[in-house]
Amino acid sequence: MARLRTRHIALCAILILGIYFFLPRDNAPSYLPHFSYGPSSRTGTHALAQHMNDPAHIPDITASNSSFDWSSVKFTYSLPQTPLLPPPVAHRPRIQHRFKPDRADVAAVQEQRRLKVKRVFQKSWASYRAMAWMKDALKPISGKYVDQFSGWAATLVDSLDTLWMLGMREEFYEAVEAVAAIDFGKSTSATVNTFETCIRYLGGFIAAYDLSGHPVLLQKAVEVGDLLYAGFNTQNGMPVDFIDFETAKEGTGLRVESQVVSASPGTITLEFSRLSQLTGNNKYYAAVSQVMDLFHENQNATRLPGMWPMMVSMSEKDVTFGYQFTIGGNADSLYEYLPKAHALLGSADPSSKKYEAMSRFFMDTAMNNLFFRPMIPGREDILISGNCDVLQGGPRLDPESEHLSCFIGGLYALAGRLFNSDEYLDVGSKLARGCAYAYKSFPTGIMPERYNMALCPVENHRRGCAWDEAAFAEAAADRPQHKIDLPKGFTTAKDPRYILRPEAIESIFILWRITGDPSWRDTAWDMFQAVAGATDTVYANAAIMDVNAPGGGEKEDYMESFWMAETLKYFYLCFADTDLISLDEFVLNTEAHPFRLSKAKQSFEIKGKDRS
Ligand SMILES: *[C@@H]1O[C@H](CO)[C@@H](O)[C@H](O)[C@H]1NC(C)=O
Ligand SMILES: *[C@@H]1O[C@H](CO)[C@@H](O)[C@H](O)[C@H]1NC(C)=O
Predict the structure, then answer these.
(1) I want to staple 141 with a disulfide (CB 3.0 to 4.6 A). Which of 219, 349, 409, 557 is the partner?
(2) Omega before 101 cis (within 30°)?
(3) Which of 273, 391, 292 lies closest to 338, judged by CA?
(4) Which residues are marked as active site?
(5) Would the pLDDT of 195 be above 70?
(6) Nearest ligand atom owner, CA of 297
(7) Closest-CA residue to 133 (of 164, 155, 106, 115)
(8) What is the pLDDT of residue 349?
(9) Over 50: is that where the pLDDT of 18 sits?
(10) Is 45 a residue whose pLDDT tops 50?
């Protein structure tokens, strides 16, 4: 059956290709069966189909309330109700390049690319819909599923806004009907992961609401937002990392963990601030502001002033004691959210000035201590983000990097525009090129999850140095994981997997939209072909075990929800109309969910341009 299915898809792909060849625009043909709406539906397929291409049409779908009302929890600890959400922003600096229409031949190439990305998404979506509907994730090889994020249909919620952007309106509203029934009063796990729930579920609902304006999505955002808010019912007002589900309902208070990774408490600002903006309820913004004030007050008191250690203690309110510093995994989105909070909250506001100051301080510190130009055989002017340990001897740069760090190039570029700094933009561009370089270097065309490179002599960390075979051999000999068959310049591929991560294409997308330099689109296309090819399975796409092996080696039977929420979305946006999710209208959370930048005197407006 699996084989049949692939052939069927391949046949249709050829047919569709043929049709597209003659059509100037995507008429949304699809190999998917016609959707039939369940008995709970209030919107017949026919009625929906008529309005499907009218972006202003909002089908009549009502949400069922969760079996527990999280807004009714009586908190043992009273939370502060200040600061107040800043007033709407009157002026923001321009972020995106002023694009002119592409020449017809260039536009035709981009259109082909866009449609190819869309077809890969459609295949993953169809399989999720057929085999893992309402489950957290599809297993793309066996066609089974897994619930690892409390069983609230993580992939479904995470994919909502991508469906919208790809113009899959019928599928979008089918998904809205489904999420309308999610019960946040029940969980498949006894504890709920604050971070994942915030970025995937809350972020997913907010973005889908910001794009479509469908009230069901705001209702579900508030339900899961109130669940997360219950995680702040603690003695010192700091959020717990894992919410004990049943205890949280009682309101008797939760115990804050003694040590957590800094990204966990540091990645709530955008979601809670936007939820306050959308609901007019200040409590979310007030709660998260207390957390960020703690980071702010201690930014200059760490072992590497400007940055915070990877591990922090929320129970002790101590964010200074650790010695390991990175902008990669465990810390990443703490940093990501500082410039982005500034973008969301605007620059006239004192708290946003705080986010600007925090952004500049960490960015200058990271430039001076974490980024390096590796020793490579060619002359490419690239930067890689490493790690920094601060022990007795002072800061020591470790040239180890990972796929997760690749978001940083895009973030510097964005900050370059937000804070009017050519230096940040230039550094961001070099960091993004560093990730593209790593992709290109490996035989699959994909970079490993984690790897090491060789440093130049210390005075040349930023300027780079000529290739030195002996020095490289010495650096490689220091690494037990070194393998002889690695691409030149890489001392290890410490973790050689590629698990469908988005961060590299995320930065390429932002650089494209900010600079308008078409070479970024070509880089994106090379990356897409490599990724789509190596990870393809019968049903969808899977993690691969070794980017340094021909074809990527074995595959793992797992497809993270971020594949459709982030990776394919960023690929798609590289080739789509540059007004679709303009960076002047949206700021994206760390799960690639776009939040609308509200302006003073804003009217809710749904762009017709989002049509596929
Ligand atoms: C859902 O909850 C809201 C507020 O808690 C309440 O006003 C409404 O009547 C409830 N709806 C249903 C169908 O129970
Ligand atoms: C951090 O502290 C140092 C030493 O007290 C001071 O010179 C510096 O200006 C401070 N930096 C910031 C950004 O507050």
Answers:
(1) 557
(2) no
(3) 292
(4) 196, 332, 449, 503
(5) yes
(6) 2
(7) 155
(8) 65
(9) no
(10) no
590 annotated as belonging to a binding site for a ligand: yes
Atom of ligand 1 nearest to the CA of 62: 13
> Does the beta carbon of 62 sit less than 6 angstroms from any atom of ligand 1?
no
* Strand ranges in 68-197 using DSSP code E only, listed in sequence order: 137-138, 145-146, 191-193
**Ligand (nearest to CA of 363):** 2
CA of 66 to the centre of ligand 1 (A): 9
Please, which pLDDT band fits residue 599 given cuts at 50, 70 and 90? confident
Residues 558-573: pLDDT tens digits?
999 999 999 999 999 9
Residue 1 class from Cβ within 10 Å (0-12 exposed, 13-18 middle, 19+ buried)? exposed
Whether the pLDDT of residue 54 is over 70: the answer is no
- CB of residue 65 inside a 6 A radius of ligand 1: yes
For the stretch 449-477, pLDDT in tens is: 999 999 998 888 888 999 999 999 999 99
With CA atoms as reference, report the closest residue to 388 among 405, 417, 366, 406.
366
Could you tell me the two tokens for 581? 């999710």
CA 299, 594, 107 angle in degrees (round to 5)?
125
* pLDDT value of position 91: 85
- Residue whose CA is closest, atom 13 of ligand 2? 361
If one counts every other C-beta atom within 10 angstroms of the C-beta of residue 498, the result is 24
Q: How far apart are CA 233 and CA 249, in angstroms?
A: 10
Residue 569 Cα distances to 122, 435, 468, 560, angstroms: 12, 18, 40, 14
Query: 459 CB contacts (<8 Å, ≥6 apart)?
Result: none
Q: Which ligand 2 atom is at minimum distance from the Cα of 361? A: 13
596 C-alpha vs ligand 1 centroid, how far in Å?
27
- The percent of residues in the chain predicted with pLDDT above 70, rounded, is 88
DSSP 246-269: HHHHHTS-BPPPS-EETTTTTS-H
Ligand 2 is surrounded, with C-beta below 6 A, by 300, 305, 361
Average pLDDT score, the chain? 90
- Alpha carbons 544 and 532: distance in angstroms, whole number: 11
How far is it, in rounded angstroms, from Cα 89 to Cα 350? 12
The tokens for 191 are: 């504890």
The Cα-based distances of 524 to 110, 286, 412, 492, 578 in angstroms read 11, 39, 19, 25, 15
Atom of ligand 2 nearest to the CA of 305: 1
pLDDT (average), residues 260-266: 98
> Mind giving me the DSSP string for 106-121?
HHHHHHHHHHHHHHHH
CA of 305 to the centre of ligand 2 (A): 8
